[in-house]
Write a structure and sequence with these properties.
single chain; mainly alpha; 4 helices; elongated; membrane
């Protein structure tokens, strides 16, 4: 699109961001802050909450870095669950 002035650009950005609820949403190429990474790591350390966090990161963000982290964490969780089931968990047989 060809923006003739700054006002047209702002209106377009507001229309694009209208559906988002949080105060800050990371765009595709924006660097994720250190505080955000620390919060993500804390949330993924909490049982049950980690599954929700990973699913939201994998499928609910516009930022490619957060999407890739979420997908990688989800793959590792599924792989770990599969290996635990394959080896019998902590069986004493």
């Amino acid at each position: 699109m060809d923006y003739r002035n700054h006002q047209d650009y702002l209106i377009n950005e507001q229309q694009k961001n209208r559906g988002f609820k949080s105060d800050h949403n990371y765009t595709d190429d924006e660097v994720v802050s250190l505080g955000a990474w620390i919060l993500i790591l804390i949330l993924t350390a909490i049982p049950i909450v980690n599954i929700i966090t990973v699913l939201v990161l994998a499928f609910g963000h516009d930022n490619e870095n957060l999407n890739n982290y979420g997908k990688a964490a989800l793959i590792l969780m599924v792989l770990g669950l599969f290996l635990a089931m394959l080896t019998g968990g902590c069986s004493m047989y």
